Amino acid sequence: MDAGINKWENLREEMKNSLQFKLGSVTKVVFKKMNAQLISEGIPVLAEQLPILMVVYFQVNAMTQQDIANVLQKDKAGIQRSVQTLHKDGFLKIESDMEDKRKNMVSLTPSGKFVCERIQTLAIAFNNQIMEHFSEEERKTFIGFLDRVLTVIEK
């Protein structure tokens, strides 16, 4: 019986220290803190919606919802729900494509642009708050490791 318990404990420890678990935990805490910061700043956007806003913000021309889904590597249905919410909140404009009426083109409204600029400032400050606990060499090593993980996974 002890061997079975030890095997279970070892497996549990291995899972707790796995890349998936650690990255998931960090992401969850970062989003929680970022959401709290957004609320305290009076910005009615969730951290989970930020990637959509930022993708549209950094595009020169309007994009389709499928384009956004492709860039973020997310399913179109989830993107569509978030785009609709951000549209209702006045941050995104949705217009029919002139050439293909089946497609919706997504762009930022003036308030969407303003919010993106505020969010960038908050995100940079948040990043700096975390990274100030690491030396320059540790930061470079850490970012290098994350880049290498991405490269390995994408192969």
TrEMBL record:
GO terms for molecular function: DNA binding; DNA-binding transcription factor activity. Keywords: DNA-binding, Transcription, Transcription regulation. Gene3D superfamilies: Winged helix-like DNA-binding domain superfamily/Winged helix DNA-binding domain. It holds the Pfam family MarR_2. The keyword Transcription regulation applies. Transmembrane segments: none annotated. Residues 16-151 form the HTH marR-type domain. This is Winged helix DNA-binding protein. It comes from Dyadobacter luticola.
